[in-house]
Queue: 2 jobs
Job 1
Amino acid sequence: MSLLSNYACRVYQRGPEKLFCRCSGLGVMAFMVTNAIISALASVSLLLLVRAGGNATIGFIGGVMGITLATAFGHFAVQRYRRHGSFELDGARGVVRRYRIGRMVGEFDFAQVRRVSLVIDPTDSIRLSGPPSWLQIRLNNGDIFRLAKGSYSELAPVCAALARLGLVPPSPAGAA
């Protein structure tokens, strides 16, 4: 049974104790990787211009800015990649399984879940009745997994399913 399906993610339930979540996040991540590549290429271009007789001070400042931007965008892309993916929440076994390209890459007990939270996404330009929120879990080791994204009313059935599994999320305010 599908609980949520929108532009950002899909969440469906199979049986009373299994929940599947898929949030790829690849669109924004590809944008960040592209920006990192462009910034790195700009640094190389400035170096070549300086070697060809350009102003060394401006070339140095531009090169440092380009490397800084490339590093920042690369870091943000890696962070986003780590938070997104496919997840199976198995209430019968009390585990969260993480999948990448169809392979399980991690399994975490519900006891390792420190917090279930709704986090407003101010960067999303698609405004629904309000800014969309991420439903995410934070583990004791600091990892954050994004399970679903949507308006509060869209996330209400997903929050209810999580509560039935024993992971109690905050109540979506304004959900009917």
Job 2
Amino acid sequence: IVLLFMLIYYRLPGFLADLALILYGLLNLAVYMVGWPILLLISILMMVSYIWDRRDAWPLLLGGILLVVTVALAAAGLTGVTLTLPAITGFILSTGMAVDANILVFERMKEELRAGRSLNSAIEAGFSRAWTSIRDSNISTLITCAILFYFGSTFGAGAVRGFAITLALGVIINMFTAITVTRTFMRLVFNWLGEKLESDSFLMGI
């Protein structure tokens, strides 16, 4: 339902966000199946895409994503995945935060397009303006997860600890998919279809 809403309301950007959300779910499962090596790979990709100019780094980024997903799917046949109720709750909540991050970006982008800015400028401005809100909300959530984990450890509430860990992992992966992956997808498609999209506001959800 969420994927359908994004596709209908935001159209082409929503479709690209749907791809990023699917990847988000795969990476979450990969963390449960493979563990910390997946988080290490995600961290490396985030640092590379941040330090290196993202316009030139997209082949490495997409290649790294493909490697992560391949390793995760290969490990699926060897490792079982056990999700408790608190873990499922944390996963659902972090998925909602991932959708919210994409909505923030797209709404900022639509504001820039309505103001008459070019497509590339609107994309960059949309991500730049939304990043502060996404960063602050994710950091506050991670702080809350740390508090829940601490009190869960103190009072022996394993369910609370499980929820905190799952939510924190989801937030970290969300920052990767909502900013780096979605942005890369959009740059690739919009550089390919730039002239058509400049003249067709319907595909941009306006």
